[in-house]
């Protein structure tokens, strides 16, 4: 990857060099059938002639306008959206560029109008990547990149649970929900009835109902807006993705009485309402509105094709308009199945994305993908889905999930007496006297791994093997974290990011009341996209949470940093920043105690350190540096 590119996502494939309709070609000549509309947004595909013509004509006339003047396409688009929306929704804010802008603007409207300070949402939902909207995502709750004080999540990802949340509280300015539940793999049951109950609960509590239709607008067959699909009119609607027909654009539609609460510069982004994007959007809306019946017929054929290719006895298929999702009928190892199907499909020239925290295939092809190509792509995907489900019966009994053996699908770990239990017991007696080692059986490992995944800590989900004292989990391709950190060829910038992310996973678990246990750098795998996945949950800790958590955080810091070569200056710098974080969380007195006890344990010559003399010196250096930075004093956190 080019070092000048700063992103957490490493591209999986060569760059796209050519595209037309629902097909695209990458730099190595590999051609793809697109079943994901790129970033789930390119409803009309590449090179759609009405859009291209509108863009070219607008660029020829004028490319940008100050909001003091606006532009004709901008004003026309606002009028057009208001005319297409339900009569009660006739105010449009379109000086926005993407779905994050739209949801954030909707939340601002709700906070200002109701004068309340909390927003209801569904766990596992996704509403954007700005500081505010990430606060609505339970997967990012508590991270430094989000506002954790704003959102209140329902107890489970269902519309019924969201209704109960609204009924139980009177402090919600709004609830934000995608009625089509694309991030959850599409809904089950009578969505209209559930939305009517939610609408009634919002009315009783004076809570605004915000529908996030960034994912669904344009993909519901004959329906443009979700209210046409559910029969329930919200107070605010958020649009994005398909709205711009491939160009950056978003909009918020709201009741007339909400329009005056925003002031200038509250929600007006420089690139928002761009004349070229608005011209593209108008051409796209012309097509969507004029072809409603055709799109309805296409949605019906799409459903029949899904049912034909994915037998219901083996797969669970859901559909909403021209969006589909597929997973295994049995949820066991669904995460492993889905990620491997997506990877194998890409090798076969079919691009598909995942949803529902990686457990489902999300099928959302461009609306203009030729039906022979759609059938071909779905047929390839179905064949790979079936073959991969069969492959899941192939189990490799091994502890080394970071092996380069790409043939593995599932790894089985036999639960046994931990070989280092005596060592860990001695360590805890010295470094954390109130904490005891805890051996976890298959059921406990399953529950822990699922719980971690639920709060956004990426973990290999463990499944109980019936009749055997063992767990199965999906093979995690990559390298052990300690190997990546110890490699002299690893970029120091990557080391910095990996160490901080590993520590963050641990403290996120602690903030949710979960102590993971045995978090050394061999129990984390770094994937080829530099994602950290936690593995091995056999050995945990029991005892008072604050004592176990502070010990685990110190242990994680020590065991991670000791892997970094001593000559790498990033190690000392990381130690300083991580100690500051730990002190902020637990107070300097408790931190000093934990680190002093760790030093006492590792200074004991009767406790040999794995890795030989070089590793022993690394421990000694880190422990001395930590002790020198932590001067005990009385504070309120001790």
TrEMBL record:
InterPro entries: Aminotrans_3, Class-III_PLP-dep_AT, Kinase-like_dom_sf, PyrdxlP-dep_Trfase, PyrdxlP-dep_Trfase_major, PyrdxlP-dep_Trfase_small. It comes from the Bacteria. This is Aminotransferase class III-fold pyridoxal phosphate-dependent enzyme. GO terms for biological process: L-arginine biosynthetic process. It holds the Pfam family Aminotran_3. GO terms for molecular function: identical protein binding; pyridoxal phosphate binding; transaminase activity. It comes from Nocardia bovistercoris. Keywords: Amino-acid biosynthesis, Aminotransferase, Arginine biosynthesis, Pyridoxal phosphate, Transferase. Gene3D superfamilies: Aspartate Aminotransferase, domain 1 (3.90.1150.10), Type I PLP-dependent aspartate aminotransferase-like (Major domain) (3.40.640.10). Its cofactor is pyridoxal 5'-phosphate.
């Amino acid at each position: 990857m080019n070092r000048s590119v700063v992103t957490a996502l490493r591209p999986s494939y060569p760059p796209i060099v050519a595209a037309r309709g629902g097909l695209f070609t990458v730099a190595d000549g590999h051609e793809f059938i697109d079943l994901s509309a790129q970033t789930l947004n390119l409803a009309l595909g590449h090179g759609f002639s009405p859009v291209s013509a509108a863009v070219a004509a607008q660029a020829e006339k004028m490319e940008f306008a100050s909001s003091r003047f606006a532009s004709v396409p901008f004003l026309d688009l606002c009028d057009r959206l208001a005319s297409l929306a339900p009569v009660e929704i006739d105010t449009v804010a379109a000086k926005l560029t993407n779905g994050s802008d739209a949801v954030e603007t909707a939340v601002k409207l709700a906070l200002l109008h109701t004068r309340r300070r909390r927003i209801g949402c569904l766990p596992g939902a996704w509403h954007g990547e700005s500081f505010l909207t990430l606060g609505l995502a339970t997967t990012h709750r508590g991270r430094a990149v989000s506002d954790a004080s704003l959102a209140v999540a329902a107890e489970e990802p269902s519309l019924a649970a969201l209704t109960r949340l609204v009924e139980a509280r009177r402090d919600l300015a709004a609830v934000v929900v995608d009625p089509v539940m694309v991030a959850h793999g599409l809904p089950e049951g009578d969505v209209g009835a559930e939305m009517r109950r939610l609408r009634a609960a919002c009315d009783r509590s004076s809570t605004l109902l915000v529908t996030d239709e960034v994912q669904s607008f344009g993909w519901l067959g004959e329906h443009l807006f979700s209210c046409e699909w559910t029969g329930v009119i919200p107070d605010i609607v958020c649009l994005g993705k398909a709205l711009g027909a491939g160009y950056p654009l978003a909009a918020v539609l709201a009741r007339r009485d909400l329009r005056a609460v925003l002031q200038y510069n509250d929600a007006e982004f420089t690139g928002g309402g761009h004349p070229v994007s608005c011209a593209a959007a108008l051409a796209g809306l012309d097509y969507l509105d004029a072809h409603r019946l055709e799109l309805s017929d296409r949605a019906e054929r799409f459903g029949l094709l899904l049912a034909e290719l994915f037998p219901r006895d083996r797969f669970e298929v859901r559909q909403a308009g021209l969006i589909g999702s597929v997973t295994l009928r049995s949820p066991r190892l669904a995460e492993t199945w889905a990620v491997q199907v997506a990877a194998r499909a890409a090798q076969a020239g079919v691009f598909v994305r995942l949803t529902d925290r990686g457990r489902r295939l999300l099928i959302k092809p461009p609306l203009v993908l030729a039906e022979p190509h759609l059938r071909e792509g779905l047929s390839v995907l179905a064949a790979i889905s079936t073959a991969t489900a069969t492959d899941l019966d192939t189990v490799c009994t091994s502890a080394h999930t970071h092996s380069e053996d790409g043939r593995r699908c599932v790894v089985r770990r036999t639960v046994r007496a931990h070989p280092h239990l005596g060592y860990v017991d001695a360590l805890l007696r010295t470094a954390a006297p109130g904490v005891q080692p805890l051996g976890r059986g298959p059921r406990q490992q399953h529950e822990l791994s699922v719980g971690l995944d639920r709060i956004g800590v990426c973990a290999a989900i463990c499944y109980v093997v019936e009749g055997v004292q063992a767990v199965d989990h999906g093979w995690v391709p990559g390298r052990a974290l300690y190997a990546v950190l110890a490699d002299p060829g690893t970029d120091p910038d990557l080391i910095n990011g990996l160490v901080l992310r590993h520590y963050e996973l641990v403290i996120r678990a602690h903030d949710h009341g979960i102590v993971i246990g045995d978090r050394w750098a061999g129990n984390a795998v770094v994937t080829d996209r530099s994602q950290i996945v936690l593995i091995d949950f056999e050995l945990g800790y029991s005892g008072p949470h604050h004592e176990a958590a502070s010990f685990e955080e110190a242990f994680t810091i020590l065991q991670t940093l000791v892997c970094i070569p001593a000559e790498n200056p990033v190690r000392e710098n990381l130690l300083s920043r991580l100690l500051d974080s730990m002190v902020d969380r637990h107070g300097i007195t408790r931190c000093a105690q934990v680190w002093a006890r760790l030093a006492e344990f590792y200074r004991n010559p009767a406790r040999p350190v794995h890795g030989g003399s070089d590793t022993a010196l690394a421990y000694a250096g880190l422990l001395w540096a930590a002790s020198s930075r932590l001067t005990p004093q009385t504070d309120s956190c001790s």
